[in-house]
């Protein structure tokens, strides 16, 4: 990758969220707490699902994969931010920055596609319940997850390879707490037209197509649910989708606001705030959103904590 860095810039400077020492200390403990909550919460989701046979269904299979990706997603950026604060060094080597960017795009895209897969799962469960077990077989579920990884890998590799072809001239300060692709592109002194075009085209397709898939799924779900005569039946059907809709709004709302609106309409600080929402806050809130409103998950978590160890004689 270093061959693409024709300018000889060996590192970038991550300016972070603030230069104020007291605010930096506060943000350090805040992000450390959010990172620990994210890791522990999503790990508990994975353990609860894997140890409870009643949750070995497509919906919870996708949820456990989403939790795993959320742990990886936050681990791509937050540990480096915390390490820089402890060391007092805001620099990040060129190769490490490109690597961080690759995995950030990879796990972000997997998150996006998995949310679409989960919407499709809810669509089949509500709109075609009699065909659910036939359509959502373990093989199909594994294939959908594999497609999510492949789709994300292609996009992440494309964005990264194109980025390594750019030259960087002197100015190497990134007004962010991680190597965000739009921020890095602004530092390039060579023509970024191809990069911008691919970011909007390929990157846009990997966000817009899944988002459209979610909209179509929930439109069909809404039409189907409204045909249910009883109010209790409608509420029961909608309650299985509420958690997912909340996560979708948090995740896609901030991404579309940052990457698919003119750069002149928002400041770097607004971009950073939005990035915190979809990189940290959404991943941290997922375990609470999916467990607090789900009786099965609450029961599985309760069993996980109250399970007595089996002693072998």
Give an overview of the whole structure.
This protein has 313 residues and is mainly alpha-helical. It has ten helices and three strands; from the N terminus they run βααβαααβααααα. The protein has helices at residues 21-51, 58-87, 94-127, 132-135, 138-163, 181-185, 193-226, 231-259, 268-292, 295-306; strands spanning 11-14, 91-93, 173-174. The longest helix is centred in the middle third of the chain and has 34 residues, at 94-127. Residues 309-313 have low confidence and may be disordered.
Helical stretch tally: 10
Unreliable parts = 309-313
Residue share in helices? over 70%
Residue-averaged pLDDT: 85
Assess the beta-strand content as a share of residues: under 5%
Side-by-side strand order of the widest sheet = 2-1-3
Termini separation comes to 57 Å
**Using DSSP, what is the number of strands?**
3
Largest sheet: 3 strands, mixed
Content-based structural category: mainly alpha
């Amino acid at each position: 990758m270093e061959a693409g860095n024709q300018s000889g810039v060996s590192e970038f400077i991550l300016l972070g969220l603030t230069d104020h020492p007291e605010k930096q200390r506060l943000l350090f403990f805040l992000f450390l707490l959010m990172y620990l909550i994210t890791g522990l919460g999503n790990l508990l989701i994975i353990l609860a699902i894997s140890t409870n046979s009643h949750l070995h269904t497509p919906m919870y299979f996708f949820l456990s994969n989403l939790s795993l990706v959320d742990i990886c997603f936050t681990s791509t950026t937050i540990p480096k931010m915390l390490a820089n604060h402890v060391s007092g060094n805001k620099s990040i080597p060129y190769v490490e920055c490109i690597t961080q960017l690759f995995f950030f795009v990879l796990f972000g895209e997997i998150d996006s596609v998995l949310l679409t897969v989960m919407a499709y799962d809810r669509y089949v469960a509500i709109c075609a319940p009699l065909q659910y077990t036939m359509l959502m077989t373990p093989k199909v579920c594994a294939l959908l997850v594999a497609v999510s990884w492949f789709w994300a890998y292609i996009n992440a590799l494309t964005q990264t390879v194109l980025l390594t072809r750019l030259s960087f001239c002197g100015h190497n300060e990134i007004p962010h707490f991680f190597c965000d692709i739009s921020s890095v592109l602004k530092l390039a002194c060579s023509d970024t037209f191809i990069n911008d075009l691919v970011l909007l085209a390929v990157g846009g397709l990997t966000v817009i197509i899944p988002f459209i898939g979610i909209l179509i799924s929930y439109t069909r779900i809404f039409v189907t649910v409204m045909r249910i005569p009883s109010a209790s039946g409608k509420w029961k059907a909608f309650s299985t989708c509420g958690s997912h809709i909340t996560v979708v709004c948090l995740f896609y709302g901030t991404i579309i606001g940052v990457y698919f609106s003119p750069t002149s309409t928002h400041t770097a600080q607004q971009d950073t705030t939005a990035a915190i929402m979809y990189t940290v806050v959404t991943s941290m809130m997922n375990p609470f959103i999916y467990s607090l409103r789900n009786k099965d998950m609450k029961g599985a978590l309760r069993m996980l904590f109250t399970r007595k160890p089996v002693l072998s004689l």
